[in-house]
Design brief:
271 residues; mainly beta; 5-stranded mixed sheet; globular
């Protein structure tokens, strides 16, 4: 869970800059300060960074649908057939504010007869149905209407959603079923920063066997593909001297990420 630290916009150095952070099934909010002279290496050989879709609340309610089903996609130059939310390896980021309600219909169209559900990882919400109950079962061909109330004092920050169906949780996450939840408002006390570029970054890996499938169970010691929003080593644009807010979530099943950015200053403001 993220909790903002004492941040004064005019003196970001009060955070203390860091050169690297380690993330495992967690998230962090980072202020990134680019040097006055840009650093670029082999950018023409790398894919351009792309955001995942963002769905925001309206009039105090975020209403949306997620459909789980098999899709064939290309990941890191390899084709893989796997279960995804709405056909996306980087599924929608759900954005709402403290005191609002998430109404999410989950539909299970899995082809191999596997049940699923949703868990709202790190959030301070009810563990009872129809909210964050891990005992909800959504069988193939069925759907379920989640109603999750976020209390008015809910911490702002980055959280994530994923299946928590007992016995297959690791495999379902490892195959691509996880996404970000942003409880917005962390920068509201500092209007000086309201117009800076904000980026949502999904860190997740996927193993692909010779048959173009995700092994079940995944092997934490085997070769894998580490990705940012479904892309391998993308180019992330930033202007010389610019400040950006990066919302970074490691939402994979097993892998740690050791993050470093050469020649830049990073201020970790929440985790």
């Amino acid at each position: 869970m993220e909790r903002p630290r004492g941040f004064k916009a005019k003196r970001p150095a009060s955070f203390g800059s860091i050169s690297r952070i380690l993330l495992n099934c967690s998230s962090a909010l980072l202020l990134l300060l680019a040097p006055l002279s840009a650093i670029a290496k082999d950018k023409d050989k790398r894919p351009a960074f792309a955001e995942s879709p963002q769905i925001e609340s309206e009039n105090g309610v975020l209403e949306t649908e997620l459909t789980v089903g098999p899709h064939t996609i290309e990941v890191a130059g390899k084709k893989v057939t796997t279960n995804l939310y709405n056909g996306l390896f980087a599924p929608p980021t759900l954005r709402l504010k403290p005191g609002e309600t998430l109404r999410l219909r989950l539909t299970n169209e899995k082809g191999e007869g596997e049940s699923t559900n949703l868990h709202y990882h790190g959030t301070n919400v009810s563990p009872l149905a129809p909210a964050d109950s891990v005992f909800i079962t959504v069988e193939p061909g069925k759907d379920y209407q989640y109603v999750v109330d976020f209390p008015k004092d809910h911490p702002q920050g980055l959280f994530w959603y994923h299946p928590h169906f007992h016995g297959t949780t690791e495999y379902q996450i490892g195959s691509g079923l996880s996404g970000l939840i942003s409880v917005d408002g962390v920068l509201d006390p500092w209007p000086e920063l309201k117009d800076i570029t904000q980026r949502f970054m999904i860190l997740r890996d996927i193993q692909i066997n010779k048959h173009g499938k995700v092994p079940n169970p995944p092997d934490p010691g085997d070769k894998t593909n580490r990705l940012v929003n479904g892309l391998r080593n993308p180019t992330i644009p930033i202007k010389p001297g610019e400040i950006q807010l990066w919302r970074v979530g490691n939402i994979g099943a097993d892998i740690y990420y050791d993050l470093e950015i050469e020649g830049h200053k990073i201020y970790e403001i929440a985790r």
